[in-house]
Design goal:
Helices cover 39% and strands 18% of the residues.
Length: 531
């Protein structure tokens, strides 16, 4: 009988399902449901309900279940023998909050997502209540950011007390999918695991304990509503009987602990040993790496996470990345190919011109009201070639400036996302990070989930196997696009990195007041004047 393993990725915009054949060492099923187009009754844009208010980003958890059931239906109708799937694992968008009661009914119809920025007041209240950011980092290993889950829970408590009162379990996204898979209302398992839990800003990844102090500030009974945190490298139960019967799974199919999308993105890119860095190039950008010891950023800007192997996954996230690139393409009516060709005509370092690309505020560094800054530009410098080079270097320098605090020697950078196809992006990342870059083929998080389920099942049911043995078989690198640093570029970028860091630090100094706050006040005066 074939040994098949499935990985699910419930992301913001879609749900993906990947099935791998452990014996033939290949991906045999790969499908996705895009919420906007495949499930139009939910009326989402990029997977998010529209017109909920400034900074609000929410989705209906029932949409994720419906998407998954549609994928299971397609799987059943395919020629894949789904009854041979031995285990399933779930990757989920991190930080989202799902609330259910004792019977399994949603007590809040929608889930606040990772990119919901409406809870800044709750972040400020929590930080003040524990005595400042340093005390908060001591408590939970991270600062309180709107992206994390703690402020979402506090917002729920403060604004919807009756719904909160009815709630018995507060889940993260992948935990909710796990609950559904293991039976849902008919005995679904209610647990968490260290990777995703460490992104809540309630559970400390270093001490591996809940912060009783922060929990108590939010609500006296909150601790009772938080599931137990179980190990990430074990299964949590079997697939529910109803799901098995409906979609043709073997009732002995295991469901493993699952994790957040970044944790499984690491596995799906083979980032499970020291020295490998994964960079995801999307609207926002992330850079993360494997560490054997917890890294706690004293400023709380680098996210301190556990991974899904029993180790650690510090992560840098920048708000601005593909947004600046897409805008410059639009402004000059350029294709991706045009951009690459123009970059070849320009000089690395841009002759000392530096753009600070904080177009929509920034998460790393934490400057939510920031705006872009142009340094070293003369009156005649705002022209196509110079601006294109400036935008490219700016986003990568911004990401590197946050990442450089990590105690890691970079041996190789593995790239995911559409921009990994760009020669210009690959080369500039190689030069600035001073390491070879190589794109990863396929679905990172969903593949990572499938690999994880194979690893857990084999260790529980067959013979012990090293995770790297499996990632070496299934993670495919696009060696035709491997890019090495250029020595002459590296020497220029070392000085430019120094310049960028000095500018970034100077802009955040408070001795003359918060310049971005002052700018925001000017904008508000102008807006009120024009009303």
């Amino acid at each position: 009988m074939k040994k098949l393993f499935a990985g699910i990725d419930t992301s913001t915009q879609s749900t993906k399902l990947v099935v791998i054949d452990f014996d033939s060492k290949e991906v045999i099923f790969n499908d996705s449901v895009v919420y906007d187009t495949d499930l139009p009754t939910y009326n989402t844009k990029n997977g998010v309900i529209q017109n909920l208010g400034e900074g609000v980003s929410e989705s209906e958890p029932t949409m994720w279940i419906e998407a998954l059931e549609l994928l299971f239906k397609r799987l059943k109708e395919s020629n894949i023998p789904q009854e041979n799937i031995r285990a399933i694992s779930v990757s989920g968008q991190q930080h989202g909050l799902v609330a259910i009661d004792a019977e399994g009914n949603l007590t809040r119809k929608t889930s606040k997502l990772w990119n919901d920025f409406s809870t800044q007041e709750e972040c400020d209240l929590l930080t003040k209540a524990v005595g400042g950011i340093s005390n908060m980092i001591e408590e939970v290993g991270n600062s309180q950011l709107t992206g994390y889950t703690a402020s979402k829970i506090y917002h729920f408590v403060r604004n919807e007390p009756e719904a909160y009162k009815k709630t018995t379990t507060l889940f993260l996204v992948h935990n909710y999918i796990n609950w559904y898979l293991t039976g849902g209302k008919n005995g679904g398992v209610r647990v968490m695991e260290p990777g995703d839990a460490s992104g809540m800003a309630l559970w400390n990844p270093k001490t591996k304990k809940w912060s009783k102090k922060v929990i108590k500030i939010i609500a006296d009974d909150l601790f009772k509503k938080l599931p137990k945190v179980e190990p990430s490298n074990k299964s949590i139960g079997f697939i529910g009987k109803d799901i098995a019967g409906k979609f043709g799974f073997d009732p002995n199919c295991k469901v493993d602990a699952g994790s957040g999308d970044n944790m499984y993105g690491a596995i799906g890119t083979g980032n499970i040993n020291p020295g490998i860095v994964t960079i995801s190039l999307g609207t926002s950008g992330t850079a993360y790496t494997f560490l054997e010891k917890a890294f706690i950023d004293p400023l709380g800007e680098i996210a301190s996470f556990c991974d899904s192997t029993g180790n650690y996954l510090p992560l840098v996230c920048v708000t601005n990345l593909a947004n600046g690139y897409n805008e410059i393409l639009k402004q000059y009516n350029l294709s991706h190919s045009d951009f690459n060709e123009i970059i070849k005509l320009t000089e690395p370092g841009n002759e000392g011109r530096v753009l600070i690309p904080w177009y929509q505020g920034e998460r790393t560094p934490s400057v939510p009201m920031a705006s872009p800054i142009y340094f070293g530009f003369g009156l005649g410098d705002f022209k196509k070639e110079i601006m294109i080079r400036a935008v490219l270097e700016a986003h990568i320098l911004n990401l590197y400036d946050g990442f450089k605090k990590l105690p890691v020697t970079v041996n190789e950078v593995r790239l995911t996302g559409g921009l990994s196809k760009s020669e210009a992006w690959r080369q500039t990342i190689a030069d600035i990070f001073e390491a070879e870059t190589v794109p990863v083929k396929g679905e990172g998080a969903a593949l990572g989930a499938a690999i994880h389920s194979a690893w857990v099942w084999n260790n529980e049911e067959a013979t012990n196997i090293n995770l790297k043995e499996i990632t070496d078989l299934f993670v495919k690198l696009d060696e035709s696009k491997r890019t090495k640093p250029i020595k002459e570029h590296v020497s220029i970028y070392r000085k430019q990195k120094e310049l960028y860091s000095a500018l970034s630090n100077k802009l955040r100094e408070s001795e003359h007041g918060n310049i971005f706050k002052i700018r925001n006040e000017i904008l508000n005066i102008s807006l009120n004047k024009n009303k």
